[in-house]
Structures are given as structure tokens and as C-alpha cells.
Design brief:
35% helix, elongated, disordered C terminus
Length: 148
Amino acid sequence: MRTQRQVVDYSLQKRAVLRELLAGRVGTYDVCDASPYLKNAARFHGEPTDQRCPICRSENLIHVHYIYGDELKQSAGQARTRAELPVLAMTLREFQVFVVEVCPGCDWNHLVEQFLLGRDGLAGGTEDAAEQETASGATPRRRREAQR
């Protein structure tokens, strides 16, 4: 996505959890604990992947995208499909996306990554930048001429 920024990848943490599980220091019930809400979100809003579950190895993982941000108001915390994210990114200034992988078979779930989306990530073309320039006395037209 064009405006994706500040990406945090949790693959090292996932490997550490799996290593603890294989060593026997953590039980299967401790890591396979997806809530009913998460399983429903995976069923209705999730994006299937080609990756097999690292625990049961019988089901493919599903990615669920949760969105959070001040501009979302009542929509904050909802699961959205990946196709909806670019549309939201062009209409909202900034919001955070959390991607969670879920196994529908054994209830494994883990945070995969988080990132920011929104118009604030567009380089130089935001309405807010034009408003700030106008408030400071410089018009957007003068700025464009000065850049040439």
C-alpha cells in the first residue's frame, strides 16, 4: 500500500514463542487460545494465506486486519478486509493496522505485524500541508514556484 509506514514485524517474537513451545516450557493451550471474537473475525473478514499452521500443520493460516485510530470513532477496533484498507487510507489522515494470524483448526493466533496508514503518509500532497502553508502566509502556489 502506498501510504504504509512505521512497519513493525513480530516474526522474531513468533519464533521465540514456537521455540518455547517445542522446548516444553509453554503448553499448547497457552498459545492456542483464540477468542470466539477473533475466530469469527477470521471467518468473515480474514484473508486466507498459503502458510500452514506451525502448531497443527493441517490448516492454512488466516490473516485478520484490525484498525485503530482517533478518526475512526465507533469503527475503531473492527476487523477489515485487506481490500478495504486502501480506501480507508485515502479518506482518513492516519490509523493503525494490526495483522493477526489465526488457525481455524487449533486456535493458534499471533500478532504478525502492525503499521500506519492514511493520507499523512503521502509525500507533499496532503490538504493539511496546504492549510498550514496558507495559515503561515505562504500560498501553495508560491511554494510550488519556489521549488522549481
